[in-house]
Amino acid sequence: MVVLSKIYTRTGDKGDTALGNGDRVAKHSARVSAYGTSDELNCFVGVARLEAEEDMDAALSRIQNDLFDLGADLCSPDMDKDAGAEYPPLRMVQSQVDRLEAEIDAMNANLEPLRSFILPGGSRLAAHLHVCRTVARRAERLATELACDEAINPVAVTYLNRLSDWFFVAARIANENGTKDVLWVPGANR
């Protein structure tokens, strides 16, 4: 269990921070950018939850917990040392991706197929979920950039990819099962 009795430590005052394994890196490093963006996404999910009810709120709550798992995964380098570690780092697992896919399939079953791209918006909840979708895509881009230089858990990238799809479908659900989606009209304002 984590115990935080003192919030400021002064250890990062010169622009570096500690990773999950204790290594110190620049606060602007690719790894910190990746897990920092997953934390930012978690905050936007919290804002979306202010508009969500019942099943949607419960699903968003699960996602928030997963995003903390994701941050813990991304802040812990040394994938090759996981097996021998006294306290192996928390890693994203396939069942978390599978749950998202099952939820996407269940939500999508209630929707008419899209015949146009949709604009972010509609209901307040849908607008918040579209923000979550785009921040998830940014977190995914940062994670894939990190993976070019350092080993990361591939399931973390898969989770982010699927999560952005989840937010897209959930936004359609929030728009009265897609009936209130705002459709893109190409060239409408020429």
TrEMBL record:
Pathway: Cofactor biosynthesis; adenosylcobalamin biosynthesis; adenosylcobalamin from cob(II)yrinate a,c-diamide: step 2/7. It catalyses: 2 cob(II)yrinate a,c diamide + reduced [electron-transfer flavoprotein] + 2 ATP = 2 adenosylcob(III)yrinate a,c-diamide + 2 triphosphate + oxidized [electron-transfer flavoprotein] + 3 H(+); 2 cob(II)alamin + reduced [electron-transfer flavoprotein] + 2 ATP = 2 adenosylcob(III)alamin + 2 triphosphate + oxidized [electron-transfer flavoprotein] + 3 H(+). InterPro entries: CblAdoTrfase-like, CblAdoTrfase-like_sf, PduO-typ. One of its GO terms (biological process) is cobalamin biosynthetic process. Residues 7-173 form the Cobalamin adenosyltransferase-like domain. GO terms for molecular function: ATP binding; corrinoid adenosyltransferase activity. Pfam families: Cob_adeno_trans. Keywords: ATP-binding, Cobalamin biosynthesis, Cytoplasm, Nucleotide-binding, Transferase. Its EC number is 2.5.1.17. One of its GO terms (cellular component) is cytoplasm. It is an enzyme of class 2 (transferase). Its main location: cytoplasm. It is found in: Cytoplasm. Belongs to the Cob(I)alamin adenosyltransferase family. This is Corrinoid adenosyltransferase. It comes from Tritonibacter multivorans.
